[in-house]
Design goal:
With about 450 residues, the protein is an alpha+beta fold. Helices cover about 40% and strands about 15% of the residues. The protein is built from 19 helices and 17 strands. The strands form five sheets. Strands 1, 2, 3, 4, 5, 6, 7, 14 and 15 form a nine-stranded antiparallel sheet that branches. Strands 8-9 form a two-stranded antiparallel ribbon. Helix 8 packs across helix 16, helix 13 packs across helix 16 and helix 14 packs antiparallel against helix 16. The chain is globular and about 65 Å long.
């Protein structure tokens, strides 16, 4: 569909299926699209850097543009920089100034890892000169909400007003969380549904394996992933585990039916945001809003404002993990590439979750943010599920057989740290906390443990 066509009013309900059906790709075109966020903090205090100013995220963006060939993007002409793009990759900002690398479409996890390390090198010199550190942790360990400077992006202004009416931790989600995600492709509607069901069923296990946010406002909060806690109280309309996709025979249309009844945030016309909170997309299609009629572009924008633990757009987006620091940064893309891009592994994962119901999996999320892999599910510890999942992913990556020329190792190398942790029934938060209470300066020690190298 051309840009002009996507801006025409929606005339047929089948048009709502296009973002999903048009994205189907043959296996030889499947790629890996990583997204990794990080907190920029002042080296001396650990508090968040602002959007603009002499020591700010804007200075880092300007350096990337001037020294490394990134092109600045603005929502309106002469407006503030809100993103950078280069060769299929982008650097974007979350509401509290969290810096996100959305990588180019990679063929292997080796490429994903190399791209991240290249990005860290590019931001390294300017960050050192500004005395900024970048933290790979799922919830800001020190800052309160009022410590953040909001990024001047139109969508965030709307979300800032609307989401707190829907959940008590909505602003925490926007300002104080960081995640690592991976976007993976699908061949057909049936393939997408198989992968979605497996990923949704294992989303809480993923959260447990990557639990990496044990501190809140300067001290331990008693659990292992406060980010996991936050996502239980954001907006029940647009979050969760998509129960409509758990039934046998579900498809794109079931997802469309759900999305039609989720209240909107906004529409855009000529680059300007028009707030439209509360109206469902179904109502917008039927009745319009302030003289505007629903277009495919509006629908695509609406789909991007839905935040389930696994999201279907042009890709399958695995969303349930805390961000990791350097040695674990590529583990999530490796895990889910191994599971979803190998037919045998996908079948083994389906067998692992056979008979699980949405309600029992959803109920496990409360224990998991507190206990991580030590939580119980269906009469066994979650670590047992995690061990099996790592084994399945190992097999999938081995069968892919993609070897890095420099190291001579296949993609399983990117699971090494995760495999060791799971083998000890630990998550990254356990490593952060180990011996921290004996440190003379636990705040500094925590920063050292989670900072990107």
């Amino acid at each position: 569909m051309t840009t002009t066509e996507s801006q025409q009013p929606i005339r047929r309900r089948d048009d709502l299926l296009l973002p999903f059906s048009e994205a189907c790709k043959p296996r030889d075109q499947w790629r890996i699209g990583p997204e990794i966020e990080k907190f920029g903090v002042f080296e001396e205090t650990g508090l968040p850097i602002p959007y603009s100013g002499p020591r700010s995220v804007l200075r880092v963006l300007e350096h990337l543009a001037s020294a490394h060939g990134w092109a600045a993007e603005r929502e309106v002409k002469d407006g503030p920089i809100i993103a950078l793009v280069r060769a299929g990759a982008s650097v974007t900002l979350e509401p509290g100034g969290q810096l996100e690398l959305s990588g180019a479409q990679s063929e292997s996890v080796h490429e994903v890892d190399a791209e991240l390390r290249g990005h860290l090198t590019e931001i390294g010199a300017v960050s050192r000169s500004l005395r900024i550190r970048w933290l790979g942790i799922g919830f800001h360990p020190f800052a309160r909400r009022e410590d953040f400077d909001w990024v001047p992006k139109q969508r965030y202004r709307v979300m800032r007003e609307y989401l707190p009416t829907r959940g008590g931790h909505a602003l925490d989600m926007m300002l104080r969380t960081c995640t690592v995600q991976v976007n993976l492709d699908y061949a057909s509607e049936a393939d997408a549904m198989r992968k979605m069901r497996v990923a949704l069923a294992l989303a809480p296990t993923t959260t447990a394996m990557f639990a990496n946010s044990p501190w809140k406002e300067g001290q331990p909060h008693g659990g292992v992933t406060y980010r996991g806690r936050v996502w239980l109280d954001v907006d029940p309309d647009r979050t969760g585990l998509l129960p409509m996709l758990w039934k046998s025979g579900s498809g794109f249309d079931d997802l469309v039916e759900w999305a039609l009844d989720v209240p909107m945030f906004l529409i855009k016309r000529r680059g300007n945001a028009i707030a439209n909170t509360g109206q469902t997309f179904r109502s917008f299609m039927a009745d319009g809003f302030e003289g505007q009629r629903a277009t495919i572009e509006d629908w695509r924008l609406h789909l991007n404002t839905l935040f389930p633990e696994v999201r279907l757009k042009r890709t399958i987006e695995i969303r349930g993990a805390d961000v990791q620091s350097t040695d674990m940064a590529s583990a999530l893309p490796a895990l889910w590439t191994g599971v979803l891009y190998d037919e045998q592994a996908l079948g083994e994962a389906e067998a692992l979750v056979e008979g699980w119901t949405h309600d029992e999996v959803a109920a496990s999320r409360d224990a998991i943010w507190r206990e991580g892999l030590r939580a119980s599910f269906r009469g066994r510890k979650v670590v047992e599920v995690a061990e099996r999942l790592v084994t399945i992913a190992d097999g999938g990556l081995a069968r892919r057989g993609l070897v890095d020329r420099a190291s001579g190792k296949d993609e399983r190398v990117h699971l090494d740290t995760l495999r060791k942790l799971v083998g000890k029934a630990q998550c990254p938060a356990d490593v952060i906390l180990d011996g921290l209470d004996r440190e003379k300066d636990p705040r500094r020690a925590l920063m050292d443990r989670v900072a990107f190298k």
